[in-house]
């Protein structure tokens, strides 16, 4: 039915704008707002679709914001399956401060889901006639969803032969890892929270990632380091990529884009090193665009030639 299935439990209508300087008390005169479909798995699906792979974005949506979210996804020609909910889909609001280049992000918790609503996601996955090669669970869990939801999803999809990619944090990440996933993409702060260690330097980062793999919790750890690039760690090798120098319009969506480019390349048969290169290029392409517009395929292909991947 699809090569790649992304799952977004807490999608958002992303609203982004810009102003010269963010200050308290004063009215801030902003540029016209941009609207994009948002949420971790949805952004991953948008990147995969732009790069040309078959993909379905599974998400929950309700209210006026939910209708707008679906319309925006249709406009981008992203194949999707939405599950109706009683609550209103959240907004996620971001302001780009033009004087400093900083992004200010205001993230709402999202609607409280009922058990039948979140269970419908698992039911949809279980009834897929042909399991997806990759199942990407990305983003946080909204109120009402149990902390082991991604663990339940991992048990279900692994039993059907899918490779599970998880990009989340906190207890939801720890629970999924206990089941054993294919790949995780923590930030350095998320890895520190997961391990409870300070992880002060790169050798400690590598060691922490390696321990996760040797314990059988994941086969691949892609550690996002922001401006310092990323590490990709497996049982037998570690790769280091420096960030691609680009003119940054916005940092929002770069992490999701990294996952999208990485999974897209793996799905088409690239080895891990080449897939890592496309993940870095996809993240860099997202930096070129305002808000969560995300990058375009031509930019990803061009930037992929500038990515330097070295053994670490």
Q: Structural class given helices, strands, pairing?
A: alpha/beta
Number of helices: 10
* Parts with pLDDT < 50 across at least 5 consecutive residues: none
Number of separate domains: 1
What's the main sheet like?
10 strands, mixed
Q: What string gives the helices and strands in order?
A: EEEHEHEEEHEHEHEHHEEEHHHE
Can you say what the CATH homologous superfamily is? Ribokinase
Number of E-type strands: 14
Mean pLDDT: 96
What does this structure look like?
The chain is α/β, with parallel strands linked by helices and 312 residues long. It has one domain: UDP-N-acetylmuramoyl-L-alanine:D-glutamate ligase. 37% of the residues lie in helices and 24% in strands. It has helices at 40-51, 63-75, 115-126, 149-158, 170-179, 188-195, 202-214, 254-267, 272-287, 297-304, and strands spanning 4-8, 12-19, 34-38, 55-61, 80-84, 90-97, 102-107, 134-138, 163-167, 181-184, 218-224, 230-233, 238-241, 309-311. The strands form 2 sheets. A 10-stranded mixed beta sheet has the order 5-4-1-8-9-10-11-12-13-14, sandwiched between helices. A 4-stranded mixed beta sheet has the order 3-2-6-7. It is globular and about 55 Å long. The termini are far apart. The mean pLDDT is 96.
